[in-house]
Amino acid sequence: MAPSADDNSYKEFDQVISNIADYVYDYEIKSEKAWINARTTLLDALGCAYECLTLSEACRKLVGPVYPGTATVPGGFKLPGTHYQLDIFKGSFDMGVLIRYLDHNDAFFGAEWGHPSGAILAVSDILTRSGEKTITMHTILEALIKAYEIQGVFQIRNSYNKVGLDHVINVKVASTAVVSWLLGLTRDQAKAAISHAWIDGHPLRTYRHAPNAGPRKGWAGGDACMRAVHIALQVKNGQPGLSTALTAPRWGFYDVLFKGNTFEFPLPFSTWCIENILFKVNCAEGHALTAVEAALQVSEELTRRDKTVDDIRKVDIRTQEAAMDIINKQGPLHNPADRDHCMQYMVAVVLVKGAMVDTADYQDNSPYAQSKQLSDLRAKIQLREDPAITREYHDLNIRSATNALTVTLNDGTVIDEIAIEFPLGSPKREETLPLVREKAKVNLGLILSEVGVRQAFECWESKDFGKINVSSVLDLFQPELPN
Predict the structure, then answer these.
(1) Backbone φ/ψ region at 405: left (φ over 0), alpha (ψ -120 to 50), beta
(2) Is residue 326 within 8 Å of 361, Cβ to Cβ?
(3) pLDDT of residue 71
(4) Which of 53, 346, 423, 439 would disulfide-bridge 289, Cβ 3.0–4.6 Å?
(5) Residue 174 Cα distances to 25, 168, 198, angstroms
(6) pLDDT category, 10, cuts 50, 70, 90?
(7) DSSP 3-state assignment of 272?
(8) Distance (Å, rounded) from C-alpha 316 to C-alpha 318?
(9) Contacts of 327 (CB under 8 A, 6+ apart)
(10) C-alpha span between 72 and 191 (Å, rounded)
C-alpha cells in the first residue's frame, strides 16, 4: 500500500517552543534569591575558567585563535584570564570550555545532570564593544537565570541518556533562546531559532562512558554554545524556522530521537532552578560529592583506630541509579576525564591521601594516577543502587544526592556506615555561599594579583553591579600585562 500524502498545511510552532520563547521574552524575575545565586554562579564560573587555564594544559590547547594571527579580533570577546580577543563563535566556544572543562562549576540534577555553559558573555561583550547596544550586568544575570531555568526544567524529568543522547542538547536550546533575546531578535525569530536548535544533530553520550570517556565531555558544552550562536545569527539573517520541529510525524525530534515520547514538565518556567542550584565546593563529579565527604570521615576514623588503607578488605557504597550509570567503573582509567568520572577513583584518592580530592589528583602527572596502592584499593570498592536513595534524589521536595559508605577491615571489623545526604554546595547547607565565594577568590588568585582579586570582588559586591556594562566587568578579569 502506497503511503498517503504528507499534510503540508501551515502549523503553529510547537507549544514547547512557544513556551520557551514566551518565558525568555515575558517573565519578570522578582526572586531575590535568584539574583543572589545568579551573581554567585557567574563569579564561580569565572573562577573555574581561571582554574582550567592554570591547571589543564589540554584545556589551554583548546582555547584561543584557530589560525595564527587571529588572537586579537577588533571589537571581539575578551576571553577572561587571557589576552585573546576572539570572534563571536570561537569566543562562545572558549568560554563554555573554560567554565566546564574540569567539571568544577555548578550543576543542576534530575533525570539529567547538566551544567549551563554560556554564550551569554561572549555575545554580550561583542554587542557592547561594537556599540550596537550596551548590555549591563543586570541583563547578563537575567539571561543567566533564564538559561538555567530552561535547562533545569527540562532536566528534571526528561532523560536523554536513556536514548543515548547527551544532555548538552539543553545547553544548545537554552543558549539559543537567551542569545536570540540578547541579539534583539523578535519573538517569532526566537521561536524559529529554538526550532533549529531542536533538530540540530545532537551528540551521543559515547564520550561520557566506558570505554570511551574522554576530554570531549569537557568541550561539549562549549560546542553547544557555539552552535547556539550560529543558529541565532542565521535566523537573524532571515532563515525561517521549523514550526513542528518536535512533533512532526516521522521526522520530528520526538519520533526520530525520543522513541515517540513527549517532554514532561513538573514545573512551569520561573526561577526555581537557579534557586536550587548545586555548587561544587569540592572537585568531584556531582553524584560522588557526598561520597568523597563520607570517605574523608572514614579516613579520619581509620586514623583514630591506628589503621591505614592497607587494612581495608572492602568498601561498600549505597548510591543513586545515576551514579551507577555514569561513574561506576572497574579496570584501567586512561585520562583525567576518565578519572573524574569514576567514583571508585575519587573515594580511593581521599582514603589514600587522607584529604579531599582536588583538581590536580585527576591529572596524568598525579601520583595517584598510576599508583598500585590506589588501583588495588579501587578494586575493593563496590557500588550498588539503593532504590530509596534514587527516589529521594528525584523527589522535588528532597533532592538529596546521598552516598553511604561501609568499610570492612581485614580483621572482620565493620566500621559503622557513614551516610551523607546533601553535599557541601547544596542549597540546604548554610555554609555553601561563603565557601563558593572563597573558592572563587582562590581560583581568581591563580592569575590575578591580590589587588586584581580585590578589585573584582569589590565590583561584584557593589550595590551598582547591575548597572555596570559587561565589557567594563570583563576588563577586570584580564591578566595584568608584564612591565
Answers:
(1) beta
(2) no
(3) 79
(4) 423
(5) 13, 10, 11
(6) confident
(7) helix
(8) 7
(9) 285, 287, 288, 341, 342, 343, 346
(10) 33
Element (H, E) at 347: helix 343-353
pLDDT of the residue at 70: 79
In Å, what is the CA distance from 304 to each residue of 291, 295, 308? Answer: 20, 14, 10
CB atoms within 10 A of CB 72: 12
Give residue for cell 562549576: 105
pLDDT in tens, 408-432: 999 999 999 999 999 999 999 999 9
Q: What is the 3-state secondary structure (H, E, C) of 292-346?
A: HHHHHHHHHHHHHCCCCHHHEEEEEEEECHHHHHHCCCCCCCCCHHHHCCCHHHH
- Give the integer Cα–Cα distance in Å for 447 and 22: 40
Complete DSSP assignment for 43-67: HHHHHHHHHHHHH-HHHHHHSS-SS
List the end-to-end C-alpha distance of the chain, in Å, as a whole number. 79
**Maximal C-alpha separation, the chain:** 79
Cell of 148: 538555567
Q: Residue with C-alpha cell 550596537?
A: 132
Q: Shortest CA distance to 106 belongs to which of 281, 297, 300, 301? A: 281
Q: Give the three cell numbers for residue 476.
A: 577586570
Distances (CA, A) of 464 to 30, 138, 459, 469, 474: 18, 10, 8, 11, 16
Element (H, E) at 191: helix 187-198
H or E segment to which residue 113 belongs: strand 113-114
Grid cell of 393 as nine digits = 534524589
Give the model confidence (pLDDT) of 27-65 as tens digits.
999 999 999 999 999 999 999 999 999 999 999 999 999
- Taking alpha carbons only, the member of 481, 483, 477, 482 closest to residue 53 is 477
| Average pLDDT value for residue range 129-158 | 96
Distance, in Å, from the CA atom of 54 to the CA atom of 49, rounded to the nearest integer, reads 9
C-alpha cell of residue 189? 525569530
pLDDT of residue 103 exceeding 80, the answer is: yes
CA dist., res. 185 & res. 407, Å (int): 58
